[in-house]
Amino acid sequence: MENKVLLVTGGASGIGQATVMRLAGDGAHVVVADMQAESAAATVADVHAAGGSAEVCELDVTDHGAVAAAVHDIVAEHGRLDGAFNNAGIGGPTAKVVDIDPADWAQVLAVNLTGVFNCIQAEIAQMVKQDTGGSIVNTASIGGVVALPRATAYNAAKHGVVGITRTAALEYAPQNIRVNAVCPGFIDTPMLEAGAATTPERRDLIAAAVPMRRVAGPHEVADVVAWLLSDQSSYVTGTAMPVDGGWTAK
Length: 250
Hints:
This protein is of the alpha/beta class and 250 residues long. It is built from eight helices and seven strands. It has a seven-stranded parallel beta sheet, sandwiched between helices. Strand 4 (83-86), helix 4 (102-130) and strand 5 (134-139) form a beta-alpha-beta unit.
């Protein structure tokens, strides 16, 4: 990771924040992109306090032009983009398919699927121009591999992320641009607390249903992302890698 220039979207909290800290700790310069600029700045301050290198990029991934401009600005400042973790996402409504508000459906797809498309399109275009290869990791979910009841919009978006990942991996493998996805299970993040684990009792039920009998820490996903972005995974592309304590093996 030493001196690599990496973009992390949704980097202000949860898995994104943990990944920023891991990548910066490994020597990368990390662009922390998030709509929550103050929270992103706090993450960057933590990086600097630990002796790492990072900067803030206020970004709405649903804005195609803004994403393209962000990649352009990164390259103008640093000369290149070596890799990216497209992680920005939302949970969405908890409802059966016939009860979903179309506006909620559209929002989830806009952030979780179109947002990844916007990012991957700009990132790959730059990597092709550089002609030096690169690595991209997208955040999918166990909901992109199996179905989670009452999460239709989320499932649809995350299945789409897996599809984008595999297609782009095949299209750009000859240029040594690797594209993979991580599929986290139940991770100890603000999104989990606001969604499935709103009470200690519900959290205990979730942990009991995981084969490893626990909820994971965000750093456990960050470790996998760091490996996929690194040269240590140089022959790995097109994967949708579960980080789920065995959930999808059931």
